[in-house]
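I'll show one example:
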Amino acid sequence: GGCGMKDVAYFLSSCLTDAGCESAAPRHLDTYFRLLRRAVQERDDVISVTDVIDVDALEAEWRAPYSVAWADFVRFLAGWAPDHWKMSAYSSRLTRAVLDDLR
């Protein structure tokens, strides 16, 4: 249970290069949310009306933590392997954006 953005961020970081993240991560996130929406709607078809999930609200709530999850991964890498190839421009950009939002 819970927000899956940490899993999504870790998965994309293991599959894509820096350039791949820059070019394809938004498309992959859109695919994730499209399939999540479909899964929730299929679930809603077989449960009671009182348990229906507002998929628009879910997506709005879950999109933002993607960058935070990625920044947390960067924090881990900075302590474990600061020269790791995943310490990339994409990682730096997302981390800076999260830190700027916190200020």
